[in-house]
Each structure stands twice: as structure tokens, then as C-alpha cells.
Amino acid sequence: MNGRRPFEERVFARFDAIDARLNGVDARFDAVDARLQRLEVRADDTNSRLEKLEIRSYDTKPIWEQALKEIVDTRRDLSKRFGRIEAVVFETRADLRDVEDRLEKDVEERLIKLERKPNQ
Predict the structure, then answer these.
(1) Residue 78 contacts by C-beta under 8 Å, 6 or more apart in sequence?
(2) Distance (Å, rounded) from C-alpha 96 to C-alpha 102?
(3) Which of 47, 67, 94, 114 has its CA 20 to 30 A from that of 86?
(4) Contact 15, 23 (CB under 8 A)
(5) pLDDT tens by residue, 64-87
(6) Mind spelling out the 3-state secondary structure of 68-94?
């Protein structure tokens, strides 16, 4: 013994030290577990929000598809109408050229007649 503690005391002291360390490790595991539980709650909340957003996107998807279809149909209809308008414009230009030609010919004929009258 020689001023030292007895063997049993030393063993119990070691057991107490081990027990204290295990309690510390256990407390840290409890803290980690609590953090993981909070993360799980947040993940569940996030999943719930994502599901709601997906449901909304499914709800609005047919609306957007219909809107896109109507836009495409309107574009085609406008393209057809512009084609018709363009054809009318070309036809009007051709008619205008014909009128101009006839008018010019008529004016020339009248001028020729006017020039002949004084000579006669």
C-alpha cells in the first residue's frame, strides 16, 4: 500500500471515471439525436410543402397547356389573316396600276384630241 489508495478504491475510481465519460458521450448522443429529430421535422415540413407545390403545378398544368394551345392557334389564325390581307394588298396594288395605266392612256388620248382641234 505504501500511502497509496487500496486496489479496490483505485478500481472504483476508474469505474467512476469511465462512468463519467460514458455519461458525457451519452449526453452528446442525446444532443445529436435531438438535432436529428429537429432536422427530420424540418425535412418532413419541406416535403409537405413540396407536395403542395406539386399538387398546385398539376392543378395549373392543364390551364397552361390550354393557354399555350390557344396562343399557337391564335398565331396560326393571325398568320392566315395576314396572308389574306397581303393578298388583298397585292390585288389592290395591281388594280391601282391598271387604273393608273387607263387614266394615263385616257389623259394622253384627250391631249391628242385637244392638240388636233386647233389644227383642224
Answers:
(1) none
(2) 10
(3) 67
(4) no
(5) 899 999 999 999 999 999 999 999
(6) HHHHHHHHHHHHHHHHHHHHHHHHHHH
